[in-house]
Amino acid sequence: MNWVLIGLATLIACEILKAVPFGVTLSRVTAYSRKAARTVSSSRISDHWKERVLPAFAMRIAMACILILGMLMLVVLPYALIGVIYPTGFAGLIADLARPVVIVAMLVGSVAYLWLRTRGGKKNAEASDYSTTDKLLHRLALGAPVLPEMIHDLERGRYLKQSPDARNGDHVFICGLARAGTTILTRELYGSGAFGSLTYRDMPFVMAPNLWANMSRHSKMEAKDRAHGDGIQVDLDSPEALDEVYWRVTCGKDYITDKGLTVHKPYQEELDGFADYISLILRRTGKARYLSKNNNNILRLPSLAATLPNARFLVPVRDPLQHAASLLSQHKRFQTADGFEESYFKWLGHHEFGKAHKPFLFEGRPTSDPMTLDYWLQVWIASYDHLRGIKDRLGDAVQFVSYEALCRDPAYQAQILQGLGMAAAPFAEMRDKGAKPIEGAHPDLAARAADIHASLI
Q1: Is 155 exposed, middle or buried (0-12, 13-18, 19+ CB in 10 A)?
Q2: Residues 134, 304: Cα–Cα separation, whole Å
Q3: Does one domain contain both 177 and 270?
Q4: Count of structural domains within the chain
Q5: Quick check: is 137 in a domain?
Q6: Is residue 396 part of a domain?
Q7: Which domain holds residue 19?
Q8: Is the pTM of this model over 0.85?
Q9: Rounded distance, CA 384 to CA 260, Å?
Q10: 153: in domain
């Protein structure tokens, strides 16, 4: 076996793959296929219109597939040329390429080479918490086109029939704006042992929690402060906001835009798929109730409530000036994120602040500079005014939770737990850090926010 020739052909194939629009074209096929499937299954579209539009989708898919075939032929061409001069001939080259060790070496080598060619040259003054191997694995599992969907399909095929039905479970979704106590409330509920949730141990293959559990169960990591600088320590078994990956991978283009994140009304098949995803997580955790912390869920609360009728949605609410100041502080803090960290936030759908920030595009969304307090006060007003309207529509399914009362009042903590059908117990991590004097907010914005806050709590 001639490793030099195989390696040379692989490097040339990588360069060809980098030069052609393979990923974009493959994503296009997936998008057209989904649109065609939604058209066929939709009861709101007439048969006449289906007969007109489906051939157009079929033609686009066919043309894209022909283009993909052409690109694959170009990628394979270096191996065909090497076969001419290979010591054991073309047949010997094919036999060597079929060996498992060669396949693994080519896969790992190709991913490493493409990463080094595209992003590896970018440096950052701060050392990253992720090794080169970790970064490659995250890019493969979260950033590669189509691959997360393929892994999820394997997970569904292997484990879904063995998973509990999640549609009627008493699940809990914690959402709102970041820096309102969503993380600490999630940790308190998760610590009760009553819920199954995604944790850092599920990273980076969060779309396949059961498949990946077979490999990650023996992984270890000492608890350390998270990057926010707020004193919260995390380890591999800490719950985290990871289920947004499902929505980004499945239908991200429907609500993630260049300007921000729009109100999201998923198709029923996507909602059913999310219920199945919860079932898979519950199978992995051995629990009957799912706990989610995902601030982006405020974009799709009515759809989630309709699909999961027994679920409860807790929305922590914090004093608007304190909240806006905290968001501004974090936005400034994460401006130093390097290229991988910025991509990491985007892969997880975390656009709350920092370099990857995208605002929620609700009515009254911010128009000022994100480096100002007023910008984040506008974010607060637009978000909680929107949520106030959602609460009016969904009733008791949505509950606003006072951040300050959670920090200070054990009786209030007990009330929240009992409302979720849990035994009252003191919170272990919730602490009252006190209010800081906040100056510089526009009086009209501060007054508007105060009115909304008073109507919620």
Answers
A1: buried
A2: 33
A3: yes
A4: 2
A5: no
A6: yes
A7: 3-121
A8: no
A9: 17
A10: no
Per-residue pLDDT tens digits for 283-306: 999 999 999 999 999 999 999 999
CA 382 to CA 445: how far, in whole Å?
A: 11
Q: In whole angstroms, give the CA distance from residue 205 to residue 75.
A: 27
Q: Taking phi first (over 0 means left), then psi (-120 to 50 degrees means alpha), and beta for anything else, what does residue 286 get?
A: left
pLDDT value at residue 127: 43
Q: In terms of domains, do 199 and 80 share one?
A: no
Assess contact for 378 and 367: CB atoms under 8 A.
yes
Q: Are residues 110 and 176 in the same domain?
A: no
User: For position 405, which CATH number holds?
Assistant: 3.40.50
At 42-55, the pLDDT tens digits run 777 888 888 888 88
